[in-house]
Amino acid sequence: MDFTSKEEYEKIRDDRVLPLNGLYHDVEEFLQPPRLLICSKCTEPGHTRKYCTWDYEVRCRCGENRTKGDHQECTIKCFRCSDAHRSNDYRCPHLKEYRYNLVIELKKRPDLLPPNVQLFILTDCRKNGDRTGKVLYNKSARNQHQQYSQQIHCYNDLNEWPELPRLMTIGSQYHQYDIKFTEEVKRIQLDFDKIKNDYVLRMKEFELKQQENIQRLNAQLNLIHIQTKTQTK
Known about the structure:
Blueprint: H1 6-15, E1 17-20, E2 23-26, H2 93-108, E3 119-120, E4 135-136, H3 139-158, H4 172-232
Antiparallel strand pairs: 1-2, 3-4
Protein name: CCHC-type domain-containing protein
């Protein structure tokens, strides 16, 4: 589903209700847990393959050397905790502990986050009873970015309307401006009429779809009523 604006998304998120085809659906915002940077060579978190110091490439399925032996039917086993999961699986206690320590450190130093990043705080990393502190972000950098955007917007407003040339004489130049103004008004009126007609057409289509949905729903309710009545007899 696509939203037309950020305000529409925030309204649905705050109301926790999504009206769709004449029905109201309960919604809940999905916040994905933070993912880790895991090396594709050794499956350890915190670095990339380029800076890995391991001597061989680890098979994440069994933890053995990928270049040695046949790993088509090897047993799934983490080489860190020996549980039945891959070594890059987030169920691994080692990765859980690493992610927990990372989130705790970022809560102490939120200034390390980029201004456009929001980090979901896991339940284990929150204080008891804290339901509001779900998202972590760099407040200072975001405020500076908003102030900078407002300044740029103000500067653009100064040049929003071009300066008109001075009228040296009242006559032909005034007549030319009057003609251009009249043509611009006609063009705007045509655009407005086009938008209005399109709106009316879309509203009719919406009303037809809504009536069809209501009729379909009434038919289903009548069928359920008949079946219930038959069963009671």
